[in-house]
Amino acid sequence: MPAAAAAPPTIRALLARRELDLHLATPADDAALDLPVRWVHSSDLADPTPFLSEEVVLLTTGTQFAGDAGADADDAAIGYVRRLRDRGVRGLGFGTEVVRDGIPDPLRAACVSVGMPLFEVPYRTPFIAVARAAAEAIAAQAYARRSWALDAQRSLALAALRPDGFDATLAELARQLDAWVGLYDASGARTHAHAAPGWAADDELRRAVDDEAAALLRRGGGTGAAMRLAGRPVTLQTLGSGGQRGVLVTAGAELDQDARAVVTAVVATTGLALEQRRMTAGAWSRLRAALVDLMVEGHLGLARDVATDAWGGFPAAPYTVAVADALAPTGSRELLDHHAATGRLFYGRDADGVLLIVSAADRTMLDEIAGRLTWRLGTAAAPADPDLPAARDRARLARDRGLPGAATDVADAPGDLLDDLATASARARAGAELVALRNHDARHGTALEATLAAWLDHDGAHEATARALGVHRHTVRTRIALAQRLLGRDLSTFADRAAVWTALRLSP
To answer: Which long-range contacts (CB under 8 A, 24 or more apart) does 164-167 make?
Structure first.
């Protein structure tokens, strides 16, 4: 619990009240003395447990033991203390010099045996004074908890007003609870995680929480759960209408009523924020896509002004332009928005993917995005505004040749120019160029196409082509002459040779 909260009333706290003059009568574990006490009750019944609640301290004068002696006294005492323990009584106070002097030895022995703290209440200290001291401590603790809850909610409200209010609110909740706080989206992926200073969630706890959050979302409905995972107290609360917007998790803090109220307030505001995000995400996405269209049509100045007004900034030239895969994985928008909020990144939906723009100095940001999102990113330089449309086209080519999880610059992309030219229409045009040659080979069983390809690969050298094909050079010369007539090309010119070579490479 947060340090701002007052310590709950305990037996140790009662013993420390000097005006009560209470004295511990038996050895007691520190843990037993420090357990919270909910109330102080007094009774001389032989079995007061039907009238007691848990976590109370019981005061007695020992009237119920007055007639016992010998073995009967031992049996009565041990049975009495065991009943108190089983009922959840925290400790026993014995009022001396009222019915008898001192504390009976059988009762001392029984308390030692059972592990029940036993303290002496002297004659001059009325039971009502002990009860009042406990009540004052309980009231002070309750007041401190209420005050902490109000202060915590005030701090959370201030955090929500920050530019990064969503993230800041979760970080502040972790600090107020002195715990770990995680947020999971509707798919069960952890999107945010914050820990109080000095607090760390180990891998076992994170894995257990991840699994439980995913299971809670699969069950559906607006539900919550409290449990212990990896030895830590954990609470999970679904967010949004029907519990389908995600899960808020706190780990490492035992939540009392006031702490639960604080968490509930954050659940409400977080759920509302997620609903608002859902409602506005489509509009923002369409605006970004419209700005991308403006940019590629040459209106970068207008797009920059709108982006600056909407998101507070735009990268400065010279630019690095990137194009990503069409499908964005879960959590991509949160990462992109994080960078876009600084004004160092612009992104928006493109015709067949996502367009990203950064200043050339921030090129490494694209490597981070590609790695974290396992995106296949293609990049290209755009020195000034007018270069952006062409840079986008080059980046698209680099993306199509790149690998997932990497940002590949067009200068480093594998392949050659023919790979870029190999469109469906270009392949069809190449096939049409060679149809006469292929028809002749099919009708007459000749090998004009194979001979022409080998001849071009050997730079038009008849002797080298003949050796490669295992035929006479005059045969090569005759075949090339026939192929030239069929194609209607003058293969002594570079232009016609290049056209035929390209057709041979592109045609399927």
So the answer is: 164/341, 166/192, 166/270, 166/273, 167/192, 167/194
Distances (CA, A) of 384 to 23, 36, 300: 84, 69, 10
Is the overall model pTM greater than 0.90, yes or no? no
Strand ranges, E, within 112-255: 118-121, 180-184, 190-195, 224-229, 232-239, 246-251
In angstroms, rounded to a whole number, what is the distance separating the alpha carbons of residues 57 and 116? 10
Query: Both tokens of residue 454?
Result: 């080998």
> Using omega within 30 degrees of 0 as the cis cutoff, is the peptide bond preceding 329 cis?
no
Nearest to 336 by CA among 325, 322, 320, 347: 347
Omega of the bond prior to 2 within 30 degrees of 0, cis? no
Instruction: Retrieve residue 450's tokens.
Output: 């194979």
Query: Which is it for strands 39-42 and 56-60: parallel, antiparallel or unpaired?
Result: parallel
pLDDT for 333-365, tens place per residue?
A: 777 877 887 888 998 888 778 899 999 999 999
DSSP helix/strand/coil, 210: helix
Cβ 11 vs Cβ 91: under 8 Å: yes
Structural domains present in the chain: 11-137 (3.40.1390.20), 162-275 (3.30.450.30), 297-413 (3.30.70), 420-506 (1.10.10)
CA distance 322 to 379: 4
Give me the amino acid identity at 231.
Answer: G
Backbone angles phi, psi at 378, to 5 degrees: -110, 140
* Percentage of residues of the chain with pLDDT beyond 90: 23
pLDDT at res. 339: 81
**Which residue in 246, 387, 355, 360 sits closest to 291, CA to CA?**
355
Three-class secondary structure of residue 474 per DSSP: helix
- Let me know: does 226 contact 233? Beta carbons within 8 Å: yes
Please name every residue paired with 41 in a beta bridge, in sequence order, or none if there are none: 58
pLDDT of residue 417: 58
Integer Cα distance of 420 and 427 in angstroms = 12
Task: Give dist(CA 115, CA 409) in Å, integer.
Answer: 73
Strand pairing partners for 434?
A: none
User: If you average pLDDT over every residue of the chain, what do you get?
Assistant: 84
Record the tokens describing residue 226, joined without a space. Answer: 């409290």
Residue 118 CB burial class (10 angstroms; 0-12, 13-18, ≥19): buried
SS3 158: helix
Segment (H or E) for 190: strand 190-195
Task: Tell me the H-state helices in 238-347.
Answer: 257-296, 300-311, 332-340
359 vs 339: CA distance, rounded Å? 12
**What confidence category does residue 68 fall into, taking pLDDT thresholds of 50, 70 and 90?**
low
